[in-house]
Amino acid sequence: MVPANSNSVGALIAAGITLGTGQWQSTWAWRAPSLFQGIFSLLCIIVLPFIPESPRWLVNKGLYEEARTVVAQTNANGNLADPVVIAVFKEIVDTLNWEKENLMTFKETIKHPVSRKRLLIGMSPGPFSCIAGNIIASYYLGPELDTAGITSYNQQLKANVVLNVWCLGCALAGTQLIARWGRKPTALLSQCLLITCLFIIGGLSKMYADNPDGASKGLVYGDVAVMFLFQGFYSIAWTPLLYLYPPEVMNYAIRANGLAFSSFMLNALA
């Protein structure tokens, strides 16, 4: 669940930086956040050569000893004789051998009904998360805050920082809750709550737009609170599910291609 929560951490850092640079009266108000973002890309380039290779990929290429070493390093502090290491390594080897014997190649991704079903199910979280309304809530947060009565640029930046803290906390909680509640129940409950929040946001925003001068602070705060609830409900379910569910339903033979299709669907609709 590191990738999903890392996105939330990155969004929080970006929100904090833009809050600070937003007061600068120069083009560096946007250049500095962009430059800072590049630092993390540079760190990735530096760290990647030291990250162990996937043991499944190593076994698939016939590098058994290297794969066994990686499994031992990640499961038992390098102890090759640990029972967990032996069991995990055997499971990897047996699974890959079975898939090779049963001709689980790239063509199998779309050739057999079972593989097509796995692929479609694995691709489904991307479109479902996009039609949940999060795209509107994320891309148009500024106009939404305007319609809620928060028109100050500085206040909107502060609200964005608090919102990202809230989303990070909900995403961390969601990674634990989906293991207890189940994937489908969590997604269905989240979707129902998101729909409810959208209706409430629309109604409160309409009330403010009809009479902005006479709108009470309770109306403004209530609208913003529901916006926060909306983002929280999304983060609890869809933020972890986007990264957890696709690889769970795809076997090794179609996982790489399936995850590529899943990412394509998500980014194409985002």
Description:
The protein has 270 residues and is an all-alpha fold. The protein folds into two domains: 55-102; 117-269, Growth Hormone, Chain: A, CATH 1.20.1250.20. Helix content is 82%, strand content 0%. Helix 4 (64-75) packs across helix 5. One of its GO terms (molecular function) is carbohydrate:proton symporter activity. It is found in: Membrane. It comes from Cladophialophora chaetospira.
Key structural traits:
270 residues; mainly alpha; Growth Hormone, Chain: A; 2 domains; 13 helices; 82% helix
- For this entry, what is the oligomeric state of its chains? single chain
Rg is: 23 Å
Looking at CATH, the homologous superfamily of the largest domain is MFS general substrate transporter like domains
* Proportion of strand residues: under 5%
The profile of the biggest β sheet is: none
